Amino acid sequence: MPKHSVDFTTKVVNGLLGIDPLARFLKHQARSMMIKRAETIGVFWHEEANGLRWRHHPLESGSPQQGEVDPAWLDTLNQVQSQTLDYPAYYLRPFHAYPEGNLGWLPALEVEVAAKAVHARIWPEAGAQGDAWLRRSYHEVLKESLPIAPQQIVDLGCSVGMSTFSLQACYPQAELTGVDLSPYFLAVAQYQDEQRQRVHSELSSVHWVHAPAEDTSLPAASFDLVSACLVFHELPQVAAQQILQEARRLLKPGGHVAIMDMNPQSDTFAKMPPYVLTLLKSTEPYLDEYFLLDIPQTLQSLGFDRPQVTCNSPRHRTIVAQAI
Known about the structure:
Layout: H1 3-17, H2 20-40, H3 45-53, H4 72-80, H5 105-109, H6 111-118, H7 130-145, E1 152-156, H8 162-170, E2 175-180, H9 183-199, E3 207-210, E4 223-229, H10 237-250, E5 251-262, H11 267-270, H12 274-283, H13 287-292, H14 295-301, E6 308-313, E7 316-322
Parallel strand pairs: 1-2, 1-4, 2-3, 4-5
Antiparallel strand pairs: 5-7, 6-7
């Protein structure tokens, strides 16, 4: 698509999203589309999310009130939540068709089913396994790129732990730390971690940290691998650059940063119909900034060796760079 056509489409899409009633309608449409897609591939969206909401215990009596969750969730939330954290302004915007963004139970309980729905069609034959295939493709790049298996790994923007647990399966000998800004996401991650250890007692528990990825307060030069999986497309450029600086601070000499996310050069996005692009942007407020950010060049300017960029799916890329 010629550059002027892309620019024109972008302006039209952004103009539509600036009309509040239309933006709300588009977010509703985007959410409905995801739920419908999930159901068609055998991911029972509401059933799975509600099972997690009640920790797979049936409601003892009465009907649940909207927004109600198993009381045990509040205890888990208190375990992981920092009471002194100030949320950056960019994080307080709506994300993924949720008015509360990432700061609520509903988005936290629906992360996994949403990921399965969104990634179902990366490979037509994958179906509900598309998300697992995507993460496996990322790990294959890591294993080819890292000369020595990392022993200390931090997962920035770990969400509900899907990326963290898959890294743990890839590098079972490593100590894992997961960092996220949403205490609700971390509460789900903590609960899932406990459930995994009940089944697999040999697994080490993950250290969950409620903090911004751009200022984790973790010790400098303490990690062999800093991983960020499907995070950067949700960031304004200033925050993205600060997170890359933080990654450099956290890495030991010779350590690596690895970023897996949407590939702005993918034909999937270049050929995306304007209506679908509009729906996507209605749930991803910083997508334009992400597509314009030159991550490899930014990494080199921060003291990393020339990054290796690998297309690990038809619409995703993995960037790996070594601290020098």
